[in-house]
């Protein structure tokens, strides 16, 4: 059972009398808030007005809860788009995005799936790859320092020995990716996930990561003892 706690003047007594398990207002209920000189009638009307206001607040709260609980389900059911047929799609990484980075907004989808950027030392550095699709791509030995990857999907990609120095890797999905020997020196890892990723010999020197994200990352048993010490893993 949920209890609403409101601090608005005149509602404290009404809140104490009404606890919300579900909002069900009978269709025939009528609330009349007109003034009346009779004190008992006035009190009754005042209580009715307070209950009406409480009812409106409760309905609003439950509506917000309904929206927030259904949103993750929609996101979970989303599927990746078909592989782009653009013959130059792999070269899009050398241009990057030109619109907002933080929320993965892009002017044109960057589909880098199954592209090969092995040992590329010049074309990827500092690029914005917001919401890029990277699964199955190879970035082994590439210089990706200072890149901005917001909401990128890199499941199953290969980043062996990739340099992510000073990069911003925000909410990137590195699930099942091979990151052996990659460098995250002074890299922001906010909300990124590494489920079943290969993290042997990864450098985490001065990596910027939140406490909750750190706890999830430290669960990965492929992280070497030296890397765990750099991160501050306790388990």
UniProtKB/TrEMBL annotation:
InterPro entries reported for this sequence: 5peptide_repeat
Gene3D superfamilies: E3 ubiquitin-protein ligase SopA (2.160.20.80)
A Pfam family per the record: Pentapeptide_4
Keywords attached to this entry: Repeat
The protein, known as: Thylakoid lumenal 17.4 kDa protein, chloroplastic
Organism for this UniProt entry: Ambrosia artemisiifolia
